Each structure stands twice: as structure tokens, then as C-alpha cells.
């Protein structure tokens, strides 16, 4: 970010970088980091040249690499940390007679950083980490180094989190008596079923039977028919097992397992079978790459950029979408309050909008004149939210009025699939046929 600021100023601009420029810089940065570190880790983990070439090709051609790994997801970062912890474990175990003080220090840092990044991290390194026990039993110096590096990283992370979440300037007493322990808070939150219910409860077979095939496609067949046993495959299996115990299961939670699995399978031997598999692999990744990389919740970022340019916007209600990143508002979040109501019931949504909506004025009825108003309430929702249809056409004197001011077609709300109530084809027709994200300016009739 400091380098970006220098480049920005060097090109004749001021020091204020537009958030969308930061957004794309982070995307490119994640692409470069994944391109270098992920491939490098695979080169280290897969020893045989032929298997290594296949592994690198499979990981590079997977839509998971194109989409999820180019995002700043904590899961994407976890993927890189897990891979490099396994690399360091392999290096240490492979040379037990040599001192691995430096490798142990880096491993201690990465392991603790992984815990503070996501509390699920230990699940992926538990089985491979057991191999280190005999080594550290014989090398207490390396053991001391990994403990010291981990302790220092933990202290630094706690200090940063405490400073971030404390309103006043922190002192040593705050760190001692009132530290912010992010992994502990995360754990305490996630062991409460009532908290998980807000994000969605899933059956414990969701990861194995739904999410993993969604991420691997045809490669899931080779995982069960032609696996290459390795410790990084055992790492993936242990991660899947532990994550399956939890009741909230999203596909992105399994991201660290994908490069580990793809580097632990062998392609079919028969030429005909191989051709069929390759074609299915290409088709699968093209379809899901387009779906997840372009359409799935694709309107969130453009919508937030649009909202940052609305001078009258003071209230924004986001319904049936992902949580919008408020930092993209370019400082407008000081006057614009963003409300993420997620899957709120429609009647409650109308009550919320009724309280927030401004009174309808002559300016609201003229083209673009409403932008001169001091306050404005906006609703951001997918076009597939058919519940809104009866209210959008209101032209009368009573009730809420919705004026569409923006629309983005490349948006699919895959979290609004309701096959049980609407049926399969009706749900597909609604979600796919009515794809898109819209923004309405909401007003109401006020009696004088």
C-alpha cells in the first residue's frame, strides 16, 4: 500500500488513492502472491518431476485458483500458510541431522499467524505436525526457537488487535488485563449454535458430499479412484474431517484442501478415459469460473462504487446480498449509514424502510433532481427478490415509493435458492432468469 501511494503521487496525483484502485491492487497482489508461493509450495511438496508437472497444471487450471485465490479471503491466505507450513515440516523432517533453527523460526511465525488468521488452521497441520515430535525431542534448540517465534507473533497480533479495537490509546495494563484475543473470541462465537444459525446451519455431510465436489468437479473421482498417498493429502483429509464437525459449512472453508488434493491425484492411464476426463475438467472449470468469478454476487463492488457517488445518500439498506465493503465508499461512510439486513423477512424490511425513507418531494419526481436533496434512503437488492414486485409499481399517494436508479446485470444471488418452497425449475427461472442487482431510491408519502 505504501508503494501504491508512492506510484500514485509519482504520476501527478494527490495522496488520496480512490478505494477502487486499492481494491484492484489487492486483487493483483493476491494473484501474484498465489502464482508465486502456491506453485513454489507444490514444487517442494511433490518430489517426482512428472507428478509435479501434473500437479502444477491441475492447480493452475482450477477455477478455484482463478477466483477464490485472487480474493483477499482469510481462506485464501490460509491456503498459502498451510502449504508453506507443510513445506517447512518436510524440510525439517527430511534433514533431521542438520540444525533447522531458521526453518523452525519461520514455521513458528507462520503457524501462529495461521491461527490468528483463521482458527481452523490447526486442523490442516495436525497430522503432518506430529512428525516433528521426534525431531524437537532431540533438538531442544530448534524447539525453543519455534516457541519463541510463535510467542512473539502472538504478542504482536494481540497488541495490534487490542490497539485496533480499543477506543483510547492502549498501555501495558490494557495488554495485561484487557487484551483482545481474536482466536478465542472467534472460537467462543462459533461454538454457540444460535450464532451459527444467523449465518446458516448445514448438515455435517455438506463439505464431503456438496462443497468438495463443487470445488473439485471431475477431480473428485480421481481422489477416490487414483489417489497418491502423501502427508499433504492426509493434511487435507484431517482438515475436511475437523471442519465437518462444525454446523456452518461454506465451500470456501475448504480452499486449503484444493491444491493439496490436486497435487495428490493421478490422471487416468487409458487414453480414451484420459481424454474424456480432460474435456470434462475444462468444461467444469470454464462454467464454474464464469459463474463464481463473474456472476456470483458480482454486483456488490460496482453497487458500492455507485453509492459512493450519490451526494444525497445517507441511508443504504442491503437485502439478500453479501455484506458490502464500506471502505469502498471513499470516505462517504462518515455520512452514509450502511445497514446489512441479510435475509430479513419482507414485512420487517418494509417496516425498516418506512422508518428510514424520506418524504416524497417534487424533486423526487423529476429526473436527477433528487440528488440535490440533503438526505436519501436507498435499497440495494437482487432482481430475483420477487417478494418486492407488488411494491415496486406503487404510484399512489400512500405507502413506499421505489425509484430504480441503477442496475447491474452480471449478478447472481446463489444464496437465494429455495428449492423446497418454489420447486427446482421455478427457483432456477427466478434466480437465473431474473439475474441482476438493482438500487432503488425509497421515499414515502408524508401528510402535511
From TrEMBL:
<feature type="transmembrane region" description="Helical">
    <location>
        <begin position="20"/>
        <end position="42"/>
    </location>
</feature>
<protein>
    <recommendedName>
        <fullName>Mannosyltransferase</fullName>
        <ecNumber>2.4.1.-</ecNumber>
    </recommendedName>
</protein>
<keyword id="KW-1133">Transmembrane helix</keyword>
<dbReference type="InterPro" id="IPR005599">
    <property type="entry name" value="GPI_mannosylTrfase"/>
</dbReference>
<keyword id="KW-0337">GPI-anchor biosynthesis</keyword>
<comment type="pathway">
    <text>Glycolipid biosynthesis; glycosylphosphatidylinositol-anchor biosynthesis.</text>
</comment>
<dbReference type="GO" id="GO:0000026">
    <property type="term" value="F:alpha-1,2-mannosyltransferase activity"/>
</dbReference>
<feature type="transmembrane region" description="Helical">
    <location>
        <begin position="101"/>
        <end position="121"/>
    </location>
</feature>
<feature type="transmembrane region" description="Helical">
    <location>
        <begin position="276"/>
        <end position="295"/>
    </location>
</feature>
<dbReference type="GO" id="GO:0005789">
    <property type="term" value="C:endoplasmic reticulum membrane"/>
</dbReference>
<feature type="transmembrane region" description="Helical">
    <location>
        <begin position="54"/>
        <end position="71"/>
    </location>
</feature>
<keyword id="KW-0256">Endoplasmic reticulum</keyword>
<feature type="transmembrane region" description="Helical">
    <location>
        <begin position="77"/>
        <end position="94"/>
    </location>
</feature>
<dbReference type="GO" id="GO:0006506">
    <property type="term" value="P:GPI anchor biosynthetic process"/>
</dbReference>
<keyword id="KW-0328">Glycosyltransferase</keyword>
<comment type="similarity">
    <text>Belongs to the glycosyltransferase 22 family. PIGZ subfamily.</text>
</comment>
<keyword id="KW-0812">Transmembrane</keyword>
<feature type="transmembrane region" description="Helical">
    <location>
        <begin position="141"/>
        <end position="160"/>
    </location>
</feature>
<dbReference type="Pfam" id="PF03901">
    <property type="entry name" value="Glyco_transf_22"/>
</dbReference>
<keyword id="KW-0472">Membrane</keyword>
<keyword id="KW-0808">Transferase</keyword>
Amino acid at each position: 500500500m505504501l508503494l501504491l501511494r508512492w506510484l500514485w503521487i509519482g504520476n501527478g496525483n494527490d495522496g488520496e488513492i480512490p478505494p477502487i484502485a486499492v481494491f484492484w491492487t489487492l486483487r493483483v497482489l493476491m494473484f501474484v502472491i498465489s502464482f508465486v508461493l502456491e506453485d513454489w509450495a507444490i514444487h517442494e511438496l511433490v518430489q517426482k518431476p512428472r507428478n509435479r508437472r501434473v500437479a502444477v497444471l491441475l492447480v493452475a487450471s482450477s477455477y478455484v485458483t482463478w477466483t477464490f485465490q485472487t480474493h483477499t479471503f482469510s481462506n485464501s491466505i490460509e491456503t498459502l500458510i498451510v502449504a508453506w507450513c507443510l513445506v517447512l515440516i518436510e524440510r525439517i523432517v527430511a534433514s533431521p541431522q542438520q540444525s533447522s533453527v531458521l526453518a523452525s523460526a519461520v514455521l513458528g511465525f507462520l503457524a501462529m499467524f495461521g491461527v490468528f488468521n483463521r482458527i481452523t488452521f490447526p486442523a490442516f497441520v495436525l497430522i503432518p505436525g506430529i512428525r516433528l515430535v521426534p525431531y524437537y525431542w532431540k533438538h531442544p534448540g530448534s524447539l525453543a526457537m519455534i516457541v519463541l517465534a510463535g510467542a512473539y507473533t502472538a504478542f504482536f497480533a494481540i497488541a495490534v488487535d487490542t490497539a485496533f479495537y480499543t477506543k483510547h490509546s492502549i498501555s501495558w495494563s490494557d495488554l495485561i488485563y484487557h487484551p483482545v484475543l481474536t482466536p478465542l473470541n472467534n472460537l467462543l462465537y462459533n461454538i454457540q449454535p444460535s450464532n451459527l444459525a444467523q449465518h446458516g446451519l448445514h448438515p455435517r455431510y455438506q463439505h464431503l458430499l456438496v462443497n468438495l465436489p463443487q470445488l473439485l468437479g471431475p477431480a473428485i473421482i480421481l481422489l477416490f479412484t487414483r489417489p497418491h498417498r502423501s502427508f499433504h493429502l492426509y493434511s487435507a483429509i484431517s482438515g475436511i474431517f475437523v471442519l465437518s464437525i462444525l454446523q456452518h459449512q461454506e465451500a470456501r472453508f475448504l480452499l486449503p484442501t484444493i491444491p493439496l488434493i490436486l497435487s495428490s491425484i493421478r490422471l487416468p492411464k487409458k487414453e480414451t478415459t484420459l481424454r474424456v476426463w480432460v474435456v470434462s475438467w475444462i468444461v467444469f472449470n470454464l462454467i464454474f469460473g464464469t459463474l463464481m468469478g463473474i456472476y456470483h454476487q458480482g454486483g456488490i463492488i460496482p453497487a458500492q462504487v455507485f453509492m459512493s457517488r450519490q451526494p444525497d445518500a445517507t441511508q443504504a439498506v442491503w437485502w439478500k446480498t453479501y455484506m458490502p465493503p464500506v471502505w469502498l465508499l471513499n470516505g462517504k461512510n462518515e455520512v452514509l449509514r450502511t445497514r446489512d439486513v441479510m435475509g430479513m423477512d419482507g414485512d420487517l424490511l418494509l417496516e425498516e424502510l418506512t422508518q428510514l425513507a424520506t418524504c416524497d418531494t417534487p424533486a423526487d419526481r423529476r429526473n436527477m433532481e433528487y440528488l440535490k436533496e440533503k438526505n436519501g434512503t436507498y435499497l440495494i437488492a437482487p432482481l430475483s427478490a420477487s417478494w418486492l414486485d407488488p411494491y415496486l409499481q406503487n404510484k399512489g399517494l400512500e405507502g413506499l415509493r421505489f425509484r430504480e436508479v441503477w442496475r447491474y446485470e452480471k449478478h447472481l444471488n446463489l444464496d437465494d435458492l429455495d428449492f423446497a418452497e418454489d420447486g427446482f425449475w421455478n427457483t432456477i427461472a427466478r434466480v437465473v432468469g431474473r439475474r441482476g442487482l438493482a438500487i432503488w431510491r425509497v421515499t414515502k408519502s408524508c401528510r402535511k
